[in-house]
Amino acid sequence: MTHGTVRHTRVFSAPRELVFRCMLTPEHLTHFWGPAGMSAPLDGITVDPRVGGAFETVMVSDDGTSRYTMRAVYDEILDPERIAWTEVGSGLRSVSTFTDLGDGRTEVTIEQSNVPAAFLTPEAQAGFLTSLDKLEVYLGTVAASA
Amino acid sequence: MTVTATNQLDQAFIALADPTRRAIVARLAHGDATVTELAEPFAMSMPAVSKHLKVLERSGLITRSRHAQTRPCHLEREPLDAALDWIETSRRAWNARFDKLEAHLRTIQTPPPTKGSER
Prior knowledge:
The complex is a heterodimer of chains A (146) and B (119).
Chain A: E1 5-12, H1 16-23, H2 26-32, E2 38-39, E3 46-47, E4 54-61, E5 67-78, E6 82-87, E7 93-100, E8 106-113, H3 122-125, H4 132-145
Antiparallel strand pairs in A: 1-8, 2-4, 3-4, 4-5, 5-6, 6-7, 7-8
Chain B: H1 5-16, H2 19-29, H3 35-39, H4 46-58, E1 62-64, E2 73-75, H5 77-109
Antiparallel strand pairs in B: 1-2
Helix pairs in contact in B: 1-4, 1-5
C-alpha cells in the first residue's frame, strides 16, 4: 500500500487541454522534460499513450558526459485530467493531475508514490529538508509531539 | 552485509515510514542511547521497541555496539542522507521541468510577431 506521496505542484498560465497535451507529446516533452542541466532529445522519447503503453525518455547532460534512461509504463490516462506511469525497475509511480482553475490557468500536481515513505511531510514536499540538520529539527518536533 | 545503494535506500525509507521509528531516529540524532533509554518516551514494551530497532538495524540506519553489555544504538547518517538526497533530487528535477514547461507554454501561446498582434 501507499504510505504517502511526495508532491510537486505548479500553476501554469495555459488552458488545461494544452498543458495535458504537452505532457503526452514527444515534440512538447523534448522542450521541458530534461531537468536542470539536462536535455531530453526528441529521438530518445517514446510515448505510447494508452494503459500498458511505454513512456521512455533519455536525458542527456548538457556537457554530453552523462545520460540517463527512464523507462516507464502508463497505468492511467484520463484525458485531460490525469496521467499516471510507473517506472520499470524502481516501481516509482508518478501521477500527474491537471486541474482547470477556471481563469485560463491550470494547476499541475505530480504525486510520486511507492517512494520511500519517510519524508512525506509538508516540509519534505516543500523541499525544506535539504540537510540532516533540518531533518533533525523536523524529527525533533515529531519526537516532541509523540 | 553488502547491499546496492538503491536497495539500501528502499530499506531506509521503509524503516522510516513508521512514526515510532522516526521518533527513535530523532532521539538518536542527539546521541547514542540504549534500548531502555529509547523505550522510555513510548508507551511500549521493551520487546516492541526491540522489534523496531531490528528494522532500523536491518535498514542500515542504526548500528548497535557489540561491546558494551547495554549495546547502545548509534545513528548512521549515510543512509539517512541518501534518503534526503533522493527527495531533494526529485524536487529539483520537477522544479526545473516546471520552469521549462512554463517557458515552453509561453512560447507556443505567443502568436508569431509577423502575423501582427491580436491582443
